[in-house]
Each structure stands twice: as C-alpha cells, then as structure tokens.
Design brief:
The chain is built from 15 helices and 10 strands. With about 425 residues, it is α/β, with parallel strands linked by helices. The protein folds into 2 domains: about 120 residues, no CATH class; about 280 residues, 3-Layer(aba) Sandwich (Rossmann fold). Helix 7 crosses helix 8 and helix 9 packs across helix 12. The longest helix is centred in the N-terminal third of the chain and has 32 residues. The protein is globular.
Length: about 425
C-alpha cells in the first residue's frame, strides 16, 4: 500500500477531481446556464460575496476554464450599472446558489476546492458542450446557429426541435439530452438574436435593418435550412411554446420535408376571437409598442424586467431572460417573436398533412390551452394529450412522462417497438 507521500501529482489531482466531481457538475451547469446571458449583458453582474455563493477565486477559475465572461463577486465597482443590472445580478446569484456549497466550505481554488480536471470532466458531460453550435448561412444570408445532438447514423430517426423563439437552445436541454439517446436532434436559435461572441453575429453586433427577413415564414424556413445542412430529406418537427407556430408553418410550407410534428403547449394566434391568456395579450401589446416606438422601448424593457423580477423560477431565469439582456436585444426580440405571435395561423392549418401530436394542460396560464384544442380540431387526425397537470415551464424542465409520450408517438409512426 503506497503512502500519501509516494503518490504522484496525477494521483492527487485525480482524487481531488473525484472528491469535487458532484459540486463541479452543479457549478459548471450553473455557469453554462448563465453563459448566454453573460455574453449578451453590456457589463458583468456584480454579486456580493458570501451568502451561499461560490468563492470568488473558484468562480473565476470555472468561468475562465469554460470561456465564459467573468462574474464579479465581492467587487461592487466591477459590475454593470445599466437598466436591469440589479435584476440580472439577482438572477445570477440565485442560479449560482442552486449549485450548493462546495465540498470544502471556505476553501479557495488554490486550496483545492475545485480542480481544472473536475471542471473539464463536468463540462464534457454537459449537453451544451456535447451539442456545440455551428454557424451556417440561410438562403437570405442571415447567420444561423444550429445545435446537433445524438448519433449521426442512418438508423437514427431525425428530430428538428423548434424551441421558444428568442430563447437559447439550452432552455430545451431536457429534450436535447433525452431525445439524443435514440434520435439525431437539431435545433436552431432564432435568427438575428444569437451569434458567436465577438463575431458580427454576436447579439451586440447586429444593427438595423436586420440581416435578412424577420417574419414567421423566414423563421420557419430556418428549420428547413437546418435539415438541408444535415442532409436530411425529412424529419419529425417538435415545437415548444412559440416554436409550435414555427413547426406548423414549416409543415404547411414544406409538407414533404415534415414527416410528422408534435406541438407542446403551443402559443398560437388564431384570430381576434382566439383563446389567449393575459400573458399572451400583454406581451403582444408591449412588443408591438416597442416595435412601433423604439424611443420608448427602454421604458417598456425596464417595465417588463421589473414585472418579471422574482416571478421567473431561478433554475430557468438566466435562459428565459436572455432576450431582455439589453434594450437593443429586446427590440430585436420584439420584432422576431412579435412576428410569430401576431401571425394568424388559421390559413395554414388546412395545409398541414403530417400526422400530429398536440399536447397541453389546463394548468398552463402562459399559453392558453384552448389554442391547442382549436389547432388539434383543425388538424386532420391529430392525436391529443391534455396532461392532468403541468404549467408552461414544466415543458422545459421536463419529466419522464413527457419524453415517454414523445417517444411513443414517434415509435408508433415509425413502426419501432415503443
């Protein structure tokens, strides 16, 4: 039996990494959840030291290792002071606190609270690193960020995931991870809102007019561009929230490319008498005001941030608030998401021939379940599932029964055993 003195540096590092692995995984996940927001914020958030937050040196080590913008801890002068700075600092602190205390409370990075090996190992298992984005050009020249997960083999049925417009792909991490076990999964982040940090496609690099089109049709066609880039003749298209409208539009415009679709808690515009929640109506109105009068967009932006303060759960807040990182990004989001929310889908519904699964729940106070019911009635032979319980956010948090129902629908279409 070797003595501790006889152990080499590699053995000591391995043991340190193993000891801190669970904490490293939680902290890496938290930092990567924050990464899109940190890249978009004009200045890093400034967080007070202590109170359940990681040690400043540990956090600096993790952000540097992951290539994420720094987070100032214990240095009020280092943080941003623009609109929403306090709110984004609260969002960052709440997400980091969910990582829990380090295995050695009070230890600094130099004392071994976290090793580079533990950070690298945790990052390698993260779905965001397993499905890194690549940037391609849409036919109109707009740069698109496409994420791909799962096996790239002929036997892997393809799924194109249309997540909520304007949200980072990471918000749908549950679906990317779960579907990638059997499927080749593609997802496209909304045109005009995402780019590689420091490149012209970065959120801060876009200027008016947009580099391309902004309507529902253009955004739906981006799903087809992703399929073209992957060499896919057709695919199942899954739409979440406003992404359900994009999935419907893609199926109506390209019936031979969309072999089937599933619509999960869809946000649908179905005319002036169509069912909508207060949230849908209010957001539509505010985005319309921001588009019509950019001079007042700053006040609308700040008002929305104040209204959302504390109301968005800490686990998804950094991702859900991404398009509100600054006023310019919010205006672009209002243009792009407004086009999705404002387009009447009723003329498209008779043109959809693909088998469809429509999912909602009476608990959804964000996207009216009555909209899903109307869409299901209009689609020929649609399968419906009204979940006994589950709010809008539950679709993104995920649950085993959601993945099981999606797999059962896909298996029934393909003839595979459930």
């Amino acid at each position: 039996m070797s003595s501790p003195a006889a152990e080499g540096p590699g053995t000591a590092d391995h043991r340190a990494a193993a000891r801190t692995a669970p904490y490293a995984a939680r902290l890496v996940e938290a930092v990567l959840d924050l990464a899109p927001l940190l890249h978009a914020l004009p200045a890093p958030p400034s967080l007070p030291a202590g109170d359940g937050l990681p040690d400043a040196a540990v956090l600096e080590r993790v952000t540097r290792r992951l290539g994420v913008p720094p987070i100032a801890v214990g240095d009020p002068a280092a943080g941003g002071r623009g609109p929403g700075a306090e709110i984004f600092a609260q969002v960052a602190a709440a997400r980091l606190k969910r990582a829990g205390p380090p295995p050695e409370p009070g230890a600094t990075a130099a004392e071994g609270a976290l090793t580079d090996g533990a950070v690298d190992a945790a990052a390698a298992r993260d779905i965001g690193r397993a499905a890194p984005p690549r940037t391609v050009k849409a036919p109109d020249g707009t740069p698109l960020r496409i994420h791909t997960a799962g096996p790239d083999t002929p036997g892997a049925p393809p799924v194109v995931l249309a997540s909520a417009p304007g949200m980072p792909a990471r918000l749908a991490a549950f679906w990317l991870r779960g579907l990638a076990a059997r499927h080749r999964v593609l997802t496209v982040e909304t045109r005009g809102l995402f780019g590689d940090p420091g490149d012209p496609g970065d959120p801060g690099g876009f200027t008016e007019p947009f580099p391309g089109h902004t309507g529902l049709d253009a955004q739906a066609d981006d799903l087809i561009t992703a399929m073209d880039e992957a060499g896919l003749a057709d695919a199942h298209v899954m739409g979440l929230c406003g992404g359900a409208a994009l999935a419907l539009a893609a199926a109506a415009r390209h019936p031979r490319r969309v072999s089937s679709l599933s619509l999960w808690h869809g946000d649908f515009e179905l005319g002036p008498d169509g069912p909508k929640t207060d949230h849908q109506r209010n957001l539509q109105a505010l985005m319309g005001m921001a588009r019509a009068d950019p001079a007042s967009a700053g006040l609308i932006h700040q008002g929305l941030l104040n209204a959302m303060r504390g109301s968005v759960p800490a686990d998804i807040a950094p991702l859900a608030l991404y398009p509100y990182a600054d006023t310019g990004l919010f205006v672009r989001y209002s243009v792009l998401n407004g086009a999705v929310m404002d387009t009447d889908l009723r003329p498209l519904l008779p043109r959809v021939t693909a088998p469809a699964l429509v999912v909602t729940s009476g608990d959804d106070t964000t996207a009216h379940p009555g909209g899903s019911a109307e869409v299901a009635r209009a689609l020929r032979g649609a399968t419906t599932w009204t979940r006994p319980h589950g709010d809008h956010i539950s679709v993104f948090r995920g649950a085993p029964e959601l993945l099981e129902r999606a797999e059962a629908f896909l298996s029934g279409l393909s003839g595979l055993a459930p």
